[in-house]
Amino acid sequence: MAENSPVEPAADFVTDVGLRRIDHVGVAVVDLDAAIDFYQRTFGMRCVHTETNTEQGVREAMLAVGPTAEGGFVQLLAPLTPESTIAKFLNRNGPGVQQVAYTVADIDVACAALRERGMRLLYEAPKRGTAGSRVNFVHPKDAGGVLVELVEPAADH
């Protein structure tokens, strides 16, 4: 590819999954407030949203990368309980990258297309994610060891 040339879509680009962009990279942390402070002071990221998601067992924050949300987000995830998925991840791996998330146009269509390709999804039906989004996850054993999150943003975003 020539330097500074636009990226051309591949002829065999798969459109039925409906990936739009990288939505965020999820990072497991022990202390959410300390992690927010670190990312803001060190990298100049802006915390644009925090919430407690009891269904997912996390307290979380979304930090914008770059001057606008167009740069995507880093999602910081701290466990609510020692039994939560994030707590188990931290016990096994320590703090660090836990997932890569992609925005999809329609999560139901994306899940159906991936299941047709033999991918295992963690949930039978999408669940509530950050800020009212709908989410599901591709099992890491089917995605090269990476936990892939699919995110359909809430209609008002």
Please specify the SSE layout and strand pairing.
Blueprint: E1 19-28, H1 32-43, E2 46-53, E3 58-64, E4 73-79, H2 85-93, E5 96-104, H3 107-116, E6 127-128, E7 134-138, E8 148-152
Parallel strand pairs: 1-4, 5-8
Antiparallel strand pairs: 1-5, 2-3, 3-4, 6-7, 7-8
Describe this entry's structure for a reader.
The protein is an alpha+beta fold and 157 residues long. The chain has a single domain (19-152), classed as 2,3-Dihydroxybiphenyl 1,2-Dioxygenase, domain 1 (Roll), CATH 3.10.180.10. The protein contains three helices and eight strands, in the order E-H-E-E-E-H-E-H-E-E-E. It has helices at 32-43, 85-93, 107-116, and strands at residues 19-28, 46-53, 58-64, 73-79, 96-104, 127-128, 134-138, 148-152. Strands 2-3-4-1-5-8-7-6 form an eight-stranded mixed β-sheet, with helices on both faces. Strand 2 and strand 3 form a beta hairpin. The longest helix is centred in the first third of the chain and has 12 residues, at 32-43. It is globular, with a radius of gyration of 16 Å. It starts with 18 loop residues before the first strand and ends in a 5-residue tail after the last strand. The mean pLDDT is 90.
Notable features of this structure?
alpha+beta; 2,3-Dihydroxybiphenyl 1,2-Dioxygenase, domain 1; 3 helices; globular; metal ion binding; lactoylglutathione lyase activity
Query: How do the strands of the widest beta sheet line up side by side?
Result: 2-3-4-1-5-8-7-6
User: Given the C-alpha coordinates, what overall shape results?
Assistant: globular
Structural class assignment:
alpha+beta
Low-confidence stretches: none
Radius of gyration: 16 Å
At CATH level 3, the topology is: 2,3-Dihydroxybiphenyl 1,2-Dioxygenase, domain 1
For CATH, the homologous superfamily is named as: 2,3-Dihydroxybiphenyl 1,2-Dioxygenase, domain 1
Number of structural units classed as domains: 1
Helix content: 10-25%
Task: Indicate the proportion of strand residues.
Answer: 25-35%
Question: In angstroms, what separates the terminal alpha carbons?
Answer: 34 Å
CATH class: Alpha Beta
What's the number of extended β-strand segments? 8
Which sequence of SSEs, written as H and E, runs from N to C?
Answer: EHEEEHEHEEE
Number of helices: 3
The whole-number mean of residue pLDDT values reads: 90
Major β-sheet annotation? 8 strands, mixed
- CATH architecture group name: Roll
Organism: Micromonospora nigra
Protein name: Methylmalonyl-CoA epimerase
Pfam families: Glyoxalase_4
Keywords: Metal-binding
